[in-house]
Predict the structure.
Amino acid sequence: TSEKLKNELGATNHHNRWQIALKEQGETAKTNIIEIVWQTGRTGNITPVLIVKPTRLSGATISRVTAHHAGMVRDRGLGPGAEIEIVRSGEVIPKLIAVHRSSDNISLPAECPSCAGALTWRDDFLRCEASSSCPGQVSSGIRHWFKTLGSADGMGEKTIARMVSHGFSSLERIYNLNESDLVTMGFGPGQTTNILAALKVSLSTPVEDARFLSALGIKDLGIGESRRLLTHYRLSQVCEITPSELAQIKGFGPITSISITDGLVARKATISHLLSMGFNIEVTPLISEQVEVDSPVAGKNLVFTGKMTVMTRNDMKKLARDLGANVQSAVSGTTDLLVAGEKAGSKLSKAEKLGVQVLSESEWNELIG
């Protein structure tokens, strides 16, 4: 990819524009907004959720739609009574694609809906700057951790919100919970047993170091970026990296290198504490340790999509990387192979349009032997 073209395309406050992958639009429907509910995310952004008149779309009844940011509400006249058109992207996430009639009742929040703190505009986003003192940001960050790890059942939104409201507002404190703490919070005997068991399972279940790092919710450091970073530095070393050192790694720019290293420094104590608790970490080999692999998919760009039956998608991705393949998150012109399970959706459609080779799960298993 041309570095000159990347620089010309630039970046938003969320992503580099050259990283965008276009997807085909699915079935759409029109509906009306009933009200707007504002939520505080883990990064402090105040996100509008449109509560709409229940509408059937792609086999599901939709009543909530994301509006992305406050600027969209302000600029597109979103509010009670507005008529909008929505799409269920990939038959999963409903989102707004058009406004057919604006509302006369547009209202933006004057304070954070979680902590009542002051809000500031950053580009199109309203942001709460309270950070660690904002329950909404703290709860969302903890939910992101458990959702990304995917190995602790029962750590849902209401459970985490109750823990945070009782002062257990860090991963360090949550992993040190005991039976007495949970009973004091009002959890019953069954819930208490399940929560403690879930925490124990999340400690013992093998987790890739890149997934562990991305679960911390550091801005601009998703699982792909984490995996790339960990081919150059060990997990125990990442908090010592300078922005200039990170920017030397292919795929990291000067702006994101600053935000990532700032986030790593801010979470240094948390990372150290969690590692000391004995998580079962699967270590990404450093580039200097990697050996050339002889396999049918070595050097190929792969994408996995749909529901698999024999192995989970994450396990299939790990196996593919062990076989020397490069696993991509989206289908593009550089993709060599798409492995499609049941209900593959838009990625399959795009692969067929681009002429990418498609294999079923059973064909994949035959290929890798």
Notes: The radius of gyration is 22 Å. The chain has a mean pLDDT of 89. The chain has 15 helices and 13 strands. The longest helix spans residues 189-204.
